[in-house]
Design goal:
Layout (H helix, E strand, L loop, with lengths): L1 H11 L1 H6 L15 H7 L5 E6 L4 E8 L13 E5 L18 H7 L3 E4 L10 E2 L14 H20 L4 E6 L1 H12 L1 H4 L2 E7 L20 H8 L3 E2 L4 H10 L3 H12 L14 H7 L4 E2 H13 L10 H8 L16 E6 L7 H7 L6 E7 L6 H4 L3 H17 L2
Parallel strand pairs: 3-4, 3-6, 6-7, 7-10, 10-11
Antiparallel strand pairs: 1-2, 2-4, 2-5, 8-9
Helix pairs in contact: 5-6, 9-11
Amino acid sequence: MWQLFVATCWMLLPGPIYGCQQEASTTNPEANMNISQIISYWGYPYEKYDIVTKDGYVLGVFRIPHGRKCPRTAPKPVVYLQHGFIASASNWISNLPHNSLGFLLADAGYDVWMGNSRGNTWSRKHLKFSTKSPEYWAFSLDEMAKYDLPATINFIIEKTGQEQLYYVGHSQGTTIAFIAFSTNAELSKRIKIFFALAPVTTVKYTQNPMRKFTILSRQVFKVLFGDKMVYPHTFFNQIIATKVCNRKIFHHICSKFLFFLTGSDPNNLNMSRLDVYLSQNPAGTSVQNMLHWAQAVNSGQFQAFDWGTPEQNMMHFHQLTPPLYNVSKMEVPTAMWSGGQDIVADLKDVENLLPKIRRLVYYKLIPHYNHVDFYLGEDAPYEVYQDLIRLMQEYLQN
């Protein structure tokens, strides 16, 4: 679908260039920056760390240790932000400072850390494997939960000297947390509150257009997509973001493609920043991760990846079929927000999840929200962030 978008815009691009010179185009400076540069551009301090997982993946993690007007006093309460599918840490700083959760938390007195899942733009290294090898890309949600989160959270705990931190996840960032916190009791003790934005465990009722691919066999799927990476950010993506989507004439079509996989809420989007949103995304993931999501759609279960044969499953799980994940085993206090226009985290799936959360401390349904409004919506500070920060402050006093 993204390739179709690129082709469409290339065909339309000569119009505004040669036929509509009177229309000025404005590219936001951040559209040509990396994550560290964006943080610094707005006057915030930043740090970057490479964290090595037990299975050899090198994850890029970014830190905003304090806000612009907050002196660096120690210790500050720590917040960890985890992005969703084919996304990156840039999600949390793509809007203006008064609208971006990463900046708002830093200004509210928190030590903010932003993770990147293996295989995305900022976490594409391994101690042994090349990204050109299928071995590097042999991962999905299971490995992100089993290796990425423990490595990152334990590193942050050690670096900051804190005993616990707050965890904020969006979409797949909630999925891997539900897996990790329900299977790793020691890790779950490190979490003060788990804030789940657009929570996803099962996707039985998802209306995401990508579900059409779930009818394909694994063999056909790999013929179409290969066995390595899908949805990387490319040079052509960058050109479309900074040379096409920065023009008002293309704002409508660019927003349509942005909302294609997530549900529509165009009135809640800052159209003038489309070039920034699209210059960082998509950030890529593995074909195996896509296969895991396809499996979840077909089965309706919250389950580990099926390696394809009983023998392979036995080798990975010591049983013939992939184990189911039991969210009700999770002991972490949890706050959740869902959207009424979210075609990824469908409300039926969320409603099935809610009774399984043993320590649900807060839940809010926002009727007009789509899947990306939780980090891009102009009213997110009002609809989500103010209550999120309030809950953090209440737990600080406990």
